[in-house]
Amino acid sequence: MAQRRDLPYTTIGAAIPCVAGWVVLPGRMLGATILAEEPFTEKAFVDVLDHKPDFSSLVVGCPLAFPDRSVAGRRAAERAAAESLGWPRRLSVEPVPSRAAVLAPSFEAAQAIEPWLTRLAYRRFRYYREVEQEIQLFHQRKVFAASPELTFQMLNGDQPLTSSRHTIEGQRDRLRLVEDRMPGITLTVNEARPKGVGFRNLVDAAGLLWTARRIGGRVLSRVPSDPEWNDFGLRMEYLR
């Protein structure tokens, strides 16, 4: 039987919810060098988790742990992220529902648990349900939640960005911040056109790939610095 050869690099990745399901931006890390590879899509979150070769660190632009009861959409992580981002960037911090709302059978049932819930916000529940079903305690060793805007602010010297993430100018501003740390990422993003994936999805994935690089280098920071845990033992936090 052929023996497995150890690869000279580790594989890291970033995953962002998108119309197609999940867009994944993988990268190869060798020492301090990182090479972004071509992004691809997966319809199901379980397929992201089962990617081969295994990710040594996978950063997901989505909450990975839900509170056991309603907190009006604001866990300690969202409160800390909003405070860090300030106005108006704090509006990028999506409210996070309780586990019971995520598992509710309809919008009306979920809204009865989370009165703040809108039809627009409910569209993200398809991703939340996948995460709730798939994430287990052992995943916490290498799968982490992150907020792209927190990463971009860190790359901007911890100063708020002046441009909106909803504009093409703002998206290119954010991509330039990543390019300064990860040369070549702009070409990767500009050439990639997976079906069902928007340019902003790719820019966000580029930011989170840098977060995965920081995790691999063990220089990560947590938001909040002292994370909460839900009753299943899952950390409710963002990394950057």
Question: Topology of this protein?
Answer:
Layout: E1 10-18, E2 21-30, E3 33-36, E4 40-42, H1 45-49, E5 57-60, H2 76-85, H3 99-102, H4 107-113, H5 119-122, H6 125-134, E6 143-145, H7 148-155, H8 168-181, H9 185-191, H10 199-216, E7 222-229, E8 235-239
Parallel strand pairs: 1-5, 5-6
Antiparallel strand pairs: 1-2, 2-3, 2-4, 7-8
Helix pairs in contact: 7-10, 8-10
Give me a quick take on this structure.
The chain has 240 residues and is an alpha/beta fold.
Description:
The protein has 10 helices and 8 strands. The relative contact order is 0.20. It is globular, with a radius of gyration of 17 Å. It has 240 residues and is an alpha/beta fold. It has helices at residues 45-49, 76-85, 99-102, 107-113, 119-122, 125-134, 148-155, 168-181, 185-191, 199-216, and strands at residues 10-18, 21-30, 33-36, 40-42, 57-60, 143-145, 222-229, 235-239. The model has no long low-confidence stretch (mean pLDDT 93). It has a domain at 10-66 and 130-239: Nucleotidyltransferase, domain 5. Strands 1, 2, 3, 4, 5 and 6 form a 6-stranded mixed beta sheet that branches. The termini are far apart. Helix content is 36%, strand content 19%. The longest helix is centred in the C-terminal third of the chain and has 18 residues, at 199-216.
* Number of DSSP-assigned strands: 8
Q: Helical region count?
A: 10
Series of secondary-structure elements, N-terminal to C-terminal = EEEEHEHHHHHEHHHHEE
CATH architecture of the domain at 10-66 and 130-239: 2-Layer Sandwich
Strand content: 15-25%
Largest beta-sheet details? 6 strands, mixed
**What structural class results from the helix and strand content?**
alpha/beta
Distance between the termini: 42 Å
Spans of 5+ residues with little confidence (pLDDT < 50)? none
CATH topology of the domain at 10-66 and 130-239: Nucleotidyltransferase, domain 5
Percentage of residues in helical conformation: 25-40%
Whole-number average pLDDT? 93
